[in-house]
Design a protein that fits this description.
4 helices, elongated, 161 residues, 60% helix, binds zinc ion, two-stranded antiparallel sheet, 2 domains, 5 strands, mainly alpha
Amino acid sequence: MVIAKCRECEKEYQLNSSDNLGDFQCECGGELDYVDDFEVKNENSIKMKRIHWNTLILGIIVTAFLGFLLGLIGIIIATLCVGYSVDKNYKNGAVHGALAGFIGGFIAVNIGNVINIILPSNTNTEFGLLLITGTLIGITIYGFTGAICGAIGAFIKQKRS
Ligand SMILES: [Zn+2]
């Protein structure tokens, strides 16, 4: 057992020594630090820190933008940054990278689709079906790429610290 204390409100929590501190946050949303003091007054409810919304939303915007401009390379660059900025946990990096890749990729692909529809050069009758299939394949690849690059980004951060 180890004790972690909130940096903001100083509430204390009991964690298993195998737990990764980066996976948790205080119920007030504050970051936790380990403490040597083993006197715990009471066990407070602890929750898993799953989604870093600020990083994710920013990541989606950057992914959509770079994905639209550079395609898959843009998605790779953006989701590497997302994984790097989340924390040192590669699973978290992968989750955030995948979400950014999937949602950002969806936006990027649809900007392209809208432009294709507006442009008068596309008179193909099978165009609609191709568009849907292409979109689905595109966002699947982007989401998958995002998961891998997000994990790599978190891994790079872990190695550098
Ligand atoms: Zn707190």
